[in-house]
Design goal:
heterodimer; A: 162 residues; mainly alpha; Butyryl-CoA Dehydrogenase, subunit A, domain 3; 8 helices; 0% strand; globular; B: 225 residues; alpha+beta; five-stranded antiparallel beta sheet; 28% helix; elongated
Chain lengths: 162, 225
Protein backbone atom coordinates (compact mmCIF):
# COMPACT_ATOMS: atom_id res chain seq x y z
CA UNK A 1 0.00 0.00 0.00
CA UNK A 2 1.21 3.46 -0.84
CA UNK A 3 0.62 4.52 2.74
CA UNK A 4 3.59 2.43 3.86
CA UNK A 5 1.32 0.16 5.86
CA UNK A 6 0.47 -3.34 4.79
CA UNK A 7 -3.15 -4.34 5.32
CA UNK A 8 -2.46 -6.58 8.34
CA UNK A 9 -0.62 -3.73 10.06
CA UNK A 10 -3.36 -1.25 9.26
CA UNK A 11 -5.95 -3.69 10.54
CA UNK A 12 -3.99 -4.29 13.74
CA UNK A 13 -3.63 -0.55 14.36
CA UNK A 14 -7.30 -0.05 13.64
CA UNK A 15 -8.37 -2.81 16.03
CA UNK A 16 -6.16 -1.38 18.73
CA UNK A 17 -6.83 2.32 18.43
CA UNK A 18 -10.12 2.91 16.59
CA UNK A 19 -12.39 2.14 19.59
CA UNK A 20 -10.65 4.56 21.92
CA UNK A 21 -10.35 7.21 19.19
CA UNK A 22 -14.08 6.90 18.67
CA UNK A 23 -14.76 7.12 22.40
CA UNK A 24 -12.70 10.29 22.71
CA UNK A 25 -14.14 11.78 19.54
CA UNK A 26 -17.69 11.03 20.62
CA UNK A 27 -17.13 12.75 23.94
CA UNK A 28 -16.08 15.86 22.06
CA UNK A 29 -18.44 15.93 19.08
CA UNK A 30 -21.38 14.11 20.68
CA UNK A 31 -22.61 12.51 17.47
CA UNK A 32 -22.02 8.90 16.57
CA UNK A 33 -21.56 9.35 12.83
CA UNK A 34 -19.32 12.38 13.18
CA UNK A 35 -17.18 10.51 15.68
CA UNK A 36 -16.61 7.75 13.11
CA UNK A 37 -15.69 10.47 10.61
CA UNK A 38 -13.10 11.63 13.12
CA UNK A 39 -11.77 8.07 13.40
CA UNK A 40 -11.35 7.96 9.65
CA UNK A 41 -9.60 11.31 9.54
CA UNK A 42 -7.23 10.37 12.37
CA UNK A 43 -6.30 7.17 10.56
CA UNK A 44 -5.85 9.05 7.32
CA UNK A 45 -3.30 11.20 9.14
CA UNK A 46 -1.69 8.13 10.67
CA UNK A 47 -1.36 6.59 7.21
CA UNK A 48 0.36 9.73 5.98
CA UNK A 49 2.71 9.68 8.97
CA UNK A 50 3.13 5.94 9.24
CA UNK A 51 6.90 6.05 9.56
CA UNK A 52 6.97 8.67 12.30
CA UNK A 53 4.10 6.97 14.12
CA UNK A 54 6.00 3.68 14.18
CA UNK A 55 8.86 5.52 15.86
CA UNK A 56 6.69 7.21 18.48
CA UNK A 57 7.94 6.53 22.00
CA UNK A 58 4.49 7.33 23.36
CA UNK A 59 1.97 6.43 20.67
CA UNK A 60 -1.03 6.99 22.94
CA UNK A 61 -0.18 10.64 23.55
CA UNK A 62 0.24 10.99 19.78
CA UNK A 63 -3.21 9.44 19.28
CA UNK A 64 -4.75 11.69 21.95
CA UNK A 65 -3.23 14.80 20.41
CA UNK A 66 -4.38 14.08 16.85
CA UNK A 67 -7.81 12.88 17.91
CA UNK A 68 -8.40 15.97 20.02
CA UNK A 69 -7.32 18.25 17.19
CA UNK A 70 -9.46 16.55 14.57
CA UNK A 71 -12.49 16.36 16.85
CA UNK A 72 -12.20 19.99 17.88
CA UNK A 73 -11.94 21.01 14.23
CA UNK A 74 -15.09 19.02 13.51
CA UNK A 75 -16.84 20.70 16.43
CA UNK A 76 -15.67 24.12 15.28
CA UNK A 77 -16.82 23.55 11.71
CA UNK A 78 -20.17 22.33 12.92
CA UNK A 79 -20.62 25.37 15.11
CA UNK A 80 -19.84 27.59 12.13
CA UNK A 81 -22.19 25.60 9.91
CA UNK A 82 -25.10 25.07 12.28
CA UNK A 83 -24.57 27.72 14.90
CA UNK A 84 -24.82 27.02 18.61
CA UNK A 85 -27.37 24.40 19.52
CA UNK A 86 -27.80 20.79 20.62
CA UNK A 87 -24.53 19.01 20.00
CA UNK A 88 -25.33 15.41 20.78
CA UNK A 89 -27.54 12.69 19.32
CA UNK A 90 -27.16 10.57 22.44
CA UNK A 91 -29.98 11.10 24.92
CA UNK A 92 -27.99 9.23 27.56
CA UNK A 93 -25.10 11.65 27.47
CA UNK A 94 -23.95 12.97 30.82
CA UNK A 95 -24.97 16.60 31.36
CA UNK A 96 -21.43 17.45 32.40
CA UNK A 97 -20.10 16.24 29.06
CA UNK A 98 -22.65 18.34 27.20
CA UNK A 99 -21.80 21.41 29.23
CA UNK A 100 -18.10 20.88 28.67
CA UNK A 101 -18.63 20.51 24.94
CA UNK A 102 -20.82 23.59 24.76
CA UNK A 103 -18.09 25.48 26.58
CA UNK A 104 -15.50 24.22 24.09
CA UNK A 105 -17.70 25.21 21.16
CA UNK A 106 -17.96 28.72 22.62
CA UNK A 107 -14.26 28.95 23.45
CA UNK A 108 -13.40 27.77 19.95
CA UNK A 109 -14.23 31.20 18.62
CA UNK A 110 -11.58 32.93 20.67
CA UNK A 111 -8.92 30.42 21.78
CA UNK A 112 -5.92 29.39 19.75
CA UNK A 113 -5.71 25.75 18.73
CA UNK A 114 -3.34 24.65 21.45
CA UNK A 115 -5.26 26.35 24.25
CA UNK A 116 -8.48 24.81 22.99
CA UNK A 117 -6.85 21.40 22.98
CA UNK A 118 -5.66 21.92 26.54
CA UNK A 119 -9.16 22.96 27.53
CA UNK A 120 -10.59 19.80 25.98
CA UNK A 121 -8.08 17.55 27.70
CA UNK A 122 -8.82 19.23 31.01
CA UNK A 123 -12.57 19.85 30.95
CA UNK A 124 -13.72 16.84 28.93
CA UNK A 125 -11.08 14.21 29.62
CA UNK A 126 -10.19 15.25 33.14
CA UNK A 127 -6.49 14.71 32.50
CA UNK A 128 -3.93 15.93 34.99
CA UNK A 129 -1.72 18.83 34.05
CA UNK A 130 1.20 16.39 33.83
CA UNK A 131 -0.68 14.23 31.33
CA UNK A 132 -1.83 17.26 29.35
CA UNK A 133 1.76 18.47 29.18
CA UNK A 134 2.78 15.09 27.83
CA UNK A 135 0.11 15.12 25.15
CA UNK A 136 0.69 18.66 23.92
CA UNK A 137 4.43 18.77 24.54
CA UNK A 138 4.49 21.53 27.14
CA UNK A 139 5.72 21.75 30.72
CA UNK A 140 3.26 21.39 33.54
CA UNK A 141 3.87 25.00 34.50
CA UNK A 142 3.01 26.23 31.01
CA UNK A 143 -0.08 24.06 30.92
CA UNK A 144 -1.15 25.59 34.25
CA UNK A 145 -0.73 29.12 32.89
CA UNK A 146 -2.68 28.33 29.76
CA UNK A 147 -5.45 26.75 31.82
CA UNK A 148 -5.65 29.91 33.92
CA UNK A 149 -6.06 31.91 30.74
CA UNK A 150 -8.74 29.50 29.50
CA UNK A 151 -10.64 29.86 32.76
CA UNK A 152 -10.54 33.66 32.46
CA UNK A 153 -12.00 33.47 28.98
CA UNK A 154 -14.63 31.01 30.18
CA UNK A 155 -15.59 33.42 32.95
CA UNK A 156 -15.77 36.25 30.45
CA UNK A 157 -18.08 34.17 28.25
CA UNK A 158 -20.42 33.56 31.13
CA UNK A 159 -20.42 37.20 32.14
CA UNK A 160 -18.14 36.71 35.11
CA UNK A 161 -20.38 34.17 36.79
CA UNK A 162 -18.10 31.16 36.24
CA UNK B 1 -8.60 12.46 41.29
CA UNK B 2 -4.88 12.69 40.64
CA UNK B 3 -4.12 9.73 42.86
CA UNK B 4 -5.91 7.49 40.39
CA UNK B 5 -4.74 6.66 36.90
CA UNK B 6 -5.93 8.95 34.13
CA UNK B 7 -7.83 7.74 31.07
CA UNK B 8 -4.62 8.25 29.13
CA UNK B 9 -2.78 5.72 31.31
CA UNK B 10 -5.68 3.29 31.33
CA UNK B 11 -5.98 3.52 27.56
CA UNK B 12 -2.34 2.53 27.29
CA UNK B 13 -3.14 -0.59 29.29
CA UNK B 14 -6.25 -1.32 27.22
CA UNK B 15 -4.21 -0.96 24.02
CA UNK B 16 -1.53 -3.28 25.36
CA UNK B 17 1.12 -0.56 25.39
CA UNK B 18 1.68 -0.78 29.14
CA UNK B 19 1.44 -3.53 31.72
CA UNK B 20 -1.24 -2.98 34.38
CA UNK B 21 1.37 -2.17 37.04
CA UNK B 22 1.27 -2.00 40.80
CA UNK B 23 -1.35 0.74 41.13
CA UNK B 24 -3.96 -1.25 39.25
CA UNK B 25 -3.17 -4.32 41.30
CA UNK B 26 -4.04 -2.42 44.48
CA UNK B 27 -6.78 0.00 43.36
CA UNK B 28 -10.32 -1.29 42.96
CA UNK B 29 -11.53 2.00 41.49
CA UNK B 30 -9.00 1.99 38.68
CA UNK B 31 -9.48 -1.73 38.08
CA UNK B 32 -13.20 -1.13 37.60
CA UNK B 33 -12.54 1.83 35.30
CA UNK B 34 -10.17 -0.34 33.28
CA UNK B 35 -12.83 -3.03 32.96
CA UNK B 36 -15.35 -0.42 31.78
CA UNK B 37 -12.93 0.90 29.18
CA UNK B 38 -12.34 -2.62 27.89
CA UNK B 39 -16.07 -3.25 27.68
CA UNK B 40 -16.50 0.08 25.93
CA UNK B 41 -13.80 -0.82 23.38
CA UNK B 42 -15.44 -4.19 22.71
CA UNK B 43 -18.82 -2.53 22.19
CA UNK B 44 -17.39 -0.02 19.72
CA UNK B 45 -15.66 -2.81 17.78
CA UNK B 46 -19.07 -4.47 17.46
CA UNK B 47 -20.81 -1.28 16.28
CA UNK B 48 -21.69 -1.04 12.55
CA UNK B 49 -19.59 2.10 12.20
CA UNK B 50 -16.42 0.25 13.15
CA UNK B 51 -16.30 -2.02 10.11
CA UNK B 52 -17.87 0.57 7.88
CA UNK B 53 -15.19 3.12 8.69
CA UNK B 54 -12.46 0.54 8.19
CA UNK B 55 -13.81 -0.25 4.73
CA UNK B 56 -13.75 3.41 3.80
CA UNK B 57 -10.25 3.77 5.18
CA UNK B 58 -9.01 0.66 3.43
CA UNK B 59 -10.48 1.79 0.13
CA UNK B 60 -8.67 5.09 0.39
CA UNK B 61 -5.41 3.56 1.53
CA UNK B 62 -5.46 1.04 -1.30
CA UNK B 63 -5.90 3.66 -4.01
CA UNK B 64 -4.28 6.87 -2.83
CA UNK B 65 -3.43 8.05 -6.32
CA UNK B 66 -7.09 8.45 -7.16
CA UNK B 67 -9.34 11.18 -5.88
CA UNK B 68 -11.00 9.90 -2.73
CA UNK B 69 -14.42 9.94 -4.29
CA UNK B 70 -13.50 8.19 -7.51
CA UNK B 71 -14.30 4.68 -6.31
CA UNK B 72 -17.91 5.71 -5.88
CA UNK B 73 -18.39 6.67 -9.49
CA UNK B 74 -18.25 3.08 -10.67
CA UNK B 75 -21.89 2.92 -9.79
CA UNK B 76 -22.79 5.39 -12.49
CA UNK B 77 -22.55 2.81 -15.26
CA UNK B 78 -25.10 0.72 -13.46
CA UNK B 79 -27.70 3.42 -13.91
CA UNK B 80 -28.31 2.24 -17.44
CA UNK B 81 -29.31 -1.19 -16.24
CA UNK B 82 -33.05 -1.63 -15.93
CA UNK B 83 -34.02 -3.24 -12.67
CA UNK B 84 -37.52 -4.33 -11.76
CA UNK B 85 -38.22 -3.62 -8.14
CA UNK B 86 -41.44 -4.42 -6.40
CA UNK B 87 -43.15 -1.48 -4.81
CA UNK B 88 -46.53 -1.50 -3.18
CA UNK B 89 -49.09 1.28 -3.27
CA UNK B 90 -47.73 4.07 -1.24
CA UNK B 91 -48.60 6.19 1.70
CA UNK B 92 -45.84 8.70 1.87
CA UNK B 93 -44.44 10.03 5.09
CA UNK B 94 -41.73 12.59 4.84
CA UNK B 95 -39.51 12.35 7.87
CA UNK B 96 -37.13 15.26 7.44
CA UNK B 97 -38.16 18.75 6.58
CA UNK B 98 -35.38 19.45 4.09
CA UNK B 99 -34.74 16.43 1.91
CA UNK B 100 -37.62 14.41 0.55
CA UNK B 101 -38.49 11.21 -1.27
CA UNK B 102 -41.64 10.42 -3.25
CA UNK B 103 -42.96 8.55 -6.26
CA UNK B 104 -44.13 10.14 -9.47
CA UNK B 105 -45.68 8.93 -12.68
CA UNK B 106 -45.21 11.04 -15.81
CA UNK B 107 -44.12 13.95 -13.65
CA UNK B 108 -47.16 13.81 -11.39
CA UNK B 109 -46.88 12.87 -7.76
CA UNK B 110 -48.50 9.47 -7.31
CA UNK B 111 -49.25 8.85 -3.70
CA UNK B 112 -51.33 5.69 -4.15
CA UNK B 113 -50.05 3.74 -7.13
CA UNK B 114 -51.64 0.42 -7.93
CA UNK B 115 -49.93 -2.83 -8.80
CA UNK B 116 -48.68 -2.65 -12.35
CA UNK B 117 -48.11 1.11 -12.29
CA UNK B 118 -44.68 2.27 -13.31
CA UNK B 119 -43.32 4.94 -11.02
CA UNK B 120 -40.18 7.01 -10.71
CA UNK B 121 -38.43 7.64 -7.44
CA UNK B 122 -37.94 11.37 -6.98
CA UNK B 123 -35.73 12.88 -4.31
CA UNK B 124 -35.10 16.36 -3.08
CA UNK B 125 -31.46 16.27 -2.00
CA UNK B 126 -31.70 19.59 -0.10
CA UNK B 127 -28.22 20.52 -1.24
CA UNK B 128 -26.57 17.23 -0.37
CA UNK B 129 -24.31 15.76 -3.04
CA UNK B 130 -25.02 12.04 -2.79
CA UNK B 131 -28.02 9.80 -2.29
CA UNK B 132 -28.52 6.12 -1.61
CA UNK B 133 -32.01 4.61 -1.76
CA UNK B 134 -32.77 1.31 -0.02
CA UNK B 135 -35.97 -0.60 0.57
CA UNK B 136 -37.14 -3.36 2.91
CA UNK B 137 -40.22 -5.54 2.61
CA UNK B 138 -42.13 -7.11 5.48
CA UNK B 139 -40.28 -10.37 4.94
CA UNK B 140 -37.00 -8.53 5.51
CA UNK B 141 -35.87 -8.52 1.89
CA UNK B 142 -33.59 -5.54 1.54
CA UNK B 143 -32.83 -4.04 -1.85
CA UNK B 144 -30.74 -1.22 -3.11
CA UNK B 145 -33.02 0.78 -5.37
CA UNK B 146 -30.61 3.51 -6.40
CA UNK B 147 -27.94 3.60 -7.66
CA UNK B 148 -28.98 0.24 -9.12
CA UNK B 149 -26.15 -2.16 -8.43
CA UNK B 150 -23.66 0.58 -7.67
CA UNK B 151 -21.12 0.12 -4.87
CA UNK B 152 -21.94 3.38 -3.16
CA UNK B 153 -24.20 6.41 -3.05
CA UNK B 154 -24.70 8.08 -6.37
CA UNK B 155 -24.03 11.76 -7.04
CA UNK B 156 -27.17 13.85 -7.40
CA UNK B 157 -27.36 17.19 -9.19
CA UNK B 158 -27.76 20.32 -7.15
CA UNK B 159 -31.46 20.65 -7.94
CA UNK B 160 -34.52 20.87 -5.77
CA UNK B 161 -36.02 17.80 -7.47
CA UNK B 162 -34.12 14.87 -8.96
CA UNK B 163 -35.84 11.98 -10.76
CA UNK B 164 -33.91 8.73 -10.30
CA UNK B 165 -33.81 6.26 -13.17
CA UNK B 166 -34.87 3.60 -14.00
CA UNK B 167 -38.60 3.41 -13.34
CA UNK B 168 -40.04 0.70 -11.12
CA UNK B 169 -43.11 -1.44 -11.53
CA UNK B 170 -45.41 -1.51 -8.56
CA UNK B 171 -46.48 -4.86 -7.12
CA UNK B 172 -48.51 -5.67 -4.00
CA UNK B 173 -46.87 -5.75 -0.61
CA UNK B 174 -45.78 -3.22 1.98
CA UNK B 175 -42.38 -1.69 1.39
CA UNK B 176 -40.43 0.85 3.37
CA UNK B 177 -37.99 3.01 1.44
CA UNK B 178 -35.15 5.13 2.74
CA UNK B 179 -33.19 7.80 0.91
CA UNK B 180 -29.92 8.51 2.70
CA UNK B 181 -28.31 11.83 1.82
CA UNK B 182 -24.70 12.71 2.36
CA UNK B 183 -21.95 14.95 1.11
CA UNK B 184 -19.68 12.03 0.31
CA UNK B 185 -20.45 8.51 -0.86
CA UNK B 186 -21.86 5.95 1.55
CA UNK B 187 -20.87 2.33 0.95
CA UNK B 188 -23.95 0.50 -0.29
CA UNK B 189 -22.98 -2.91 1.09
CA UNK B 190 -22.54 -1.52 4.57
CA UNK B 191 -25.80 0.37 4.42
CA UNK B 192 -27.64 -2.74 3.23
CA UNK B 193 -26.10 -4.81 6.00
CA UNK B 194 -27.04 -2.23 8.63
CA UNK B 195 -30.59 -2.13 7.29
CA UNK B 196 -30.88 -5.94 7.21
CA UNK B 197 -29.69 -6.24 10.79
CA UNK B 198 -31.91 -3.43 12.04
CA UNK B 199 -34.94 -4.65 10.13
CA UNK B 200 -34.64 -8.22 11.39
CA UNK B 201 -34.17 -6.95 14.92
CA UNK B 202 -37.20 -4.70 14.59
CA UNK B 203 -35.08 -1.62 15.20
CA UNK B 204 -34.93 1.64 13.28
CA UNK B 205 -32.14 1.95 10.76
CA UNK B 206 -29.23 3.47 12.67
CA UNK B 207 -27.71 6.64 11.37
CA UNK B 208 -24.78 5.69 9.16
CA UNK B 209 -21.39 7.35 9.35
CA UNK B 210 -21.40 10.22 6.90
CA UNK B 211 -25.15 10.28 6.55
CA UNK B 212 -26.47 13.80 6.97
CA UNK B 213 -30.15 13.62 6.26
CA UNK B 214 -32.71 10.96 5.57
CA UNK B 215 -36.15 10.73 4.01
CA UNK B 216 -38.31 7.68 4.60
CA UNK B 217 -41.43 6.29 2.99
CA UNK B 218 -43.69 3.74 4.47
CA UNK B 219 -45.43 2.09 1.54
CA UNK B 220 -48.65 0.28 2.40
CA UNK B 221 -51.07 -1.58 0.11
CA UNK B 222 -53.94 0.49 -1.22
CA UNK B 223 -57.50 -0.59 -0.66
CA UNK B 224 -58.81 -2.72 -3.54
CA UNK B 225 -60.86 -0.75 -6.08
Amino acid sequence: MASGLERPELRALYERYAPLIHRRAFRLVGREAEAWDVVQEVFRMLLEKADSFRGEAQPMTFIYRITTNVALNALRHRTLREGPGPVTDDPGFEPGDVEARNLLAALGRSLDEQSLQIAALHFVDGLTQDDIGEVVGLSRKTVGKKLDSVRQQARALSGGAA
Amino acid sequence: MSEHLSDLRLDEVVAGLQAPGSHLAACDTCTQRLARLRQDAAARRAAPGFEWTYQRLNARAAAPADPWWSWALGGLSALAVAVLVTLAPVDVNRVKAGAFLRTESHGVVLSTPRPGDRVTLVVGPAGHRFALVLSATDDHAVEQLWPAGGPASGPVPGKARVALQPEFEVTPGRVRVWALFSDRPLLAATARKALEEADRAGLPLPRLPGEIERAEWVLTPADPP
